[in-house]
Amino acid sequence: MRDERTFTITTPIYYVNGRPHIGHAYTTIAADTIARYRRMKGHEVFFLTGTDEHGQKVLERATERGMDPKAHCDDMVVHWKAMMEKLGISYDRFIRTTDADHIATVTTVLQRLFDQDLIYKDTYKGWYHVSDEIFVTEKDIEEGKYDKSELREIEETNYFFKMGSYQQQLIDAIESNPTLIQPESRKNEVLGFLRKTLGDLCISRPKSRMSWGIELPFDDEFVTYVWFDALLNYLSGLGYDGSEGCTAHLKWWPANYHLIGKDILTTHSVYWSTMLFAIGQPLVQTLYAHGWWVSADGAKMSKSKGNVIDVDVLVDNYGVDATRYFFLREISFGADGGFTYEGFQQRYNVDLANDFGNLTHRGLSMALKWLGESVPPVGERTEAEAAIVARAREAVVEYDAQMEALQYNKALEAVISVVDATNKYIDTQEPWAINKRGDTARLQTVMRTLLEVSVYTGVLLAPFMPAKSAELLGKFGLDHDDAKRLLGAWLDDGPGLDALVEGAPVSLGEPLFPRFRQLPEAIVAMLTPDPTFEEWLAEQGVESVSDATKDAWQAMYARRHDEEKATKDLITFDDFGKLDLRAGLILEAGPHPKADRLLVLKVDVGEHKPRQVVAGIASKYAPEELVGKRVVVVCNLKPAKLRGVMSEAMLMAAGEKEVVDLASVVATPGEVVR
Ligand code: MSP
Q1: Does domain 346-493 have CATH number 1.10.730.10?
Q2: Domain over 576-662 is classified CATH 3.30.300.130
Q3: How do residues 279-310 score in pLDDT, each as one tens digit?
Q4: Can you list the alpha helix ranges (DSSP code H) found in 201-249?
Q5: Is 257 in the pocket of ligand 1 (CB under 6 A)?
Q6: Is residue 13 within 6 Å of ligand 1 at its C-beta?
Q7: Domain residue ranges of the chain, discontinuous segments joined by +
Q8: What is the 3-class SS of 491-550, one letter each residue?
Q9: 36 alpha carbon to ligand 1 midpoint, in Å?
Q10: Of 35, 148, 503, 565, which alpha carbon lies 20 to 30 A from 545's?
């Protein structure tokens, strides 16, 4: 049995045939939140995530891009790692199925199963679903489960894993272990599936049809089926090498949780479990299948429908913590959710800006204004304070139980119930009235309660919103170690709302979640459909265009997004005024000692000695044609060395990479240019 103070959690490994969207972010945020929670509880955590890089889908995408599949994967994996970084994902290993240790594990496992006659060769004729990469049954087709255009009839020789022989063992395992597949409805779904005879699993693809995969060790004309390869990441990622006596992974295996979307329930509950039986490894403790995020009309997110929600848009506009919070708060883990920006913003405003913000900013402002920037004494607590303490105690118990059960939204509700109770407490206690009548002792007690509840929420929200929690706790001079210590104490003895030390400094800082009055402009712009060329022309007041100018109009239509972007970056007249632009006269020009591209010039800009300017204009001008040229010079650019030669100003010129022409004014050197 594994040490109870270790905790292993995994996400699916993501296909690198596209970029990440909120659906992928969802599983990852959920896994990260529980990983952080367990670490706060003092557990040693292994959090495994990564990318699934073999198989047809990835190969097709690489081919479309005209790239070698591995180069395509190397290029795509950057987006996945960037998503993890952006969301503050604290993984311990990011596995790629093209990693050498993973490939070695898969190869060893295959050879072992082959040697044990658990893998055999056979010819199969049937319907193959291209994008799901599975063989489908006639019955599935009759029931219309698959889009016919995606099906191909194939007859081929392949290798098969004796999955069917484990059917009863799997049913027994699921029935005798109520927590193996969760939620309950998913367990029933799998048991339903297992009522039909379980066939064997085709685990190879002939290279002649699809060559991007791990080669079978016993037949070099085949590669491994992508799912057989991918599922083994859960063991190879933990150090398992595939050999019979391997123990390297046992500190972390069996994993506590595989978090997956409901779409990949069968592969995990059936393929993976039977693979584990065959290699003599225990099953995961809990396979948790969550629901799907769909668009408001219930449609599946897909690139072709254009309804994919990009994680970056949310994080850039609302911040990483609000994004993390939303997904875990909005729906229960297991159910489906419909995403709209309006819904997101409403949740943000109600929970974060209003409820949480009211407590942590308005409460703190009052305390600091009336009692100074330090923690006030507790004073005598009345029934009103006792009620808050009692709520906080109950909520911690509830929160912990819900976190352990991955019921994130219920865990958050428990914390919010304390925030709500405290906001009501502010209203009923009317601290402004207490302040007015000068009852300092009472005011201190009430304010201290507010500060304590702020710290309490800062600690309990840390796994969900690590950055905002750190910011909030920082206002009280507390850090993550304090949060850990406090959580530990509260789980043992319950919180007494006495985390702070009287007299310790407190600072107000910025509101954590400023309110949004309307949808951010960037989102509105994104949601506004692009005008067609004709609509755009009409917007410009142009009814029709002549053949002679049509291309120019169309080029302008194509350029309009660049311009919108440029307008966003407009500078003010004052900004422009900061530039010291002057007329100059080139007195000398010569080559740069180290760079062919550069020339070194001496330019008169009206000062008592010329400025030395290093300019990247050698491709266009010979030094001798420059002497005597009148130019425009930026004179207040910070001097910098260019390949070892100091440059004290810059010439203005047309052209981005290559210079096209030098800007010129015929004026006395030193004359201001505007
Ligand atoms: N590569 C396989 C998994 C192999 S695991 C050994 C795969 N990859 S995937 O990139 O297509 O999707 C992985 C997971 O992303 C899904 O199972 C699910 O967890 C998540 N989601 C993708 N789209 C989603 C939504 N629209 N909503 C919620 N989660 C979804 O399948």
Answers
A1: yes
A2: no
A3: 999 999 999 999 999 987 788 887 777 788 88
A4: 226-231, 233-236
A5: no
A6: yes
A7: 346-493, 533-570, 576-662
A8: HHHCCCCCCCCCCCECCCCCCCCCCCCCCCHHHHHHHCCCCCHHHHHHHCCCCCCCHHHH
A9: 22
A10: 565
